[in-house]
Amino acid sequence: MIDYNKIRVRVTLDNLRHNYRVFTAVHPHVIPVIKSDAYGHGLAEVARVLEAEGADTFGVGFVSEAADLRRSGCKARILALLGPVDDADYASLWSHDVLAFIGRFDQLERLAEEAQGRGPLDIALKFDTGMRRLGFSPDQVDGVVKFLKAHPAVRPVMASSHLARADEPGREADVALQGRRFEQAVDGLKAAGFDVEACLANTAGALAHEAVRHDSMRLGIGLYGCNPLHGTPLERLGAGLRPAMEVSAPILQVRELKAGEGISYGWTHVAEHDSVVAIVGAGYADAYSRTLSNKGFMNVKGRLSPIVGRVCMQMTAIDVTDALGQGAVVRPGDEAWLLGGPAPGTISPEDLAGWWGSITYEPFCLLGMNPREYV
Prior knowledge:
Blueprint: E1 8-11, H1 13-24, E2 30-32, H2 35-39, H3 43-52, E3 57-60, H4 63-71, E4 77-80, H5 87-95, E5 99-102, H6 105-118, E6 121-126, H7 141-150, E7 154-160, H8 172-191, E8 197-199, H9 203-208, E9 217-219, E10 245-257, E11 262-263, E12 269-270, E13 275-280, E14 297-300, E15 303-306, E16 316-319, H10 321-325, E17 335-339, H11 349-356, H12 361-367, E18 372-374
Parallel strand pairs: 1-18, 2-9, 3-4, 4-5, 5-6, 6-7, 7-8
Antiparallel strand pairs: 1-10, 10-13, 10-17, 11-12, 13-16, 14-15
Helix pairs in contact: 11-12
């Protein structure tokens, strides 16, 4: 957590509840994905509010994060989506009751060995159906079945995979291909007598591809209020989601910039006319990207104010001339909104990600490392 600045990250819990309910109306068994500190929204805090909403399973990244979530008091089932990596991880599967994704034979072998002393363990099997990252290939299912039959203390209760192109209209054939490969793996497990929960759909899959919803579905970016189909012909399918995060920083000084004067390092912005700039206490040391130099905006008094010059380590200059022209008074101590803020200049996660040259996940994860408060 960054603790040396004055940035405020505000997470609206009611918006998280709303977004969760949008998806439980689509499918009764939704697994909120709260990995990487809940995409910057707060691991324990998000889990608490959604557990109260009825969520009975959460997905995190590494096993160590699952252990942290369990220590926070979470009683729900916890999935470690990246599986065990080291000795501490393998021990935590038992000591913290973690359901880990397993996608390699050497992991199965290690679990079977550990189970001799620690007792039986439920696992989730990960299959690679097209993402080409982690997991068994579907044609390895016979070998997986053979191993599990020989080692009954390792008990599969879930099978999962991850869709690579569910958020791309026109790629229905690719999604369907992954669906068939996944069903091949699940059918092989069930034919051998393993009653596994089938989990394939992510947020985009849940919205746009009914056939991949199966027994449960994982809710990632949609939980935090972002539509993975934004900007596509299918955007309507994710309408109504509410961003949960807003970020602001204080204005440190307001000053005039005369025509012909440059500002910030390198004078990459030179004023074409007399203007008024505000210096905001946020920069790249606060996880506010330097790529926003001369092309991003902040929201001051409900007005979009362009970034002028380079984003610095802990300061960024914005042109507030237009805001003043609307009758606003801008003073040191006022808030400048990096994300969110009052209308009509509310900055959406998609707006910020577009200026950033990224996707909404990145600003959430990075800005969420700053001090957070919950409303």
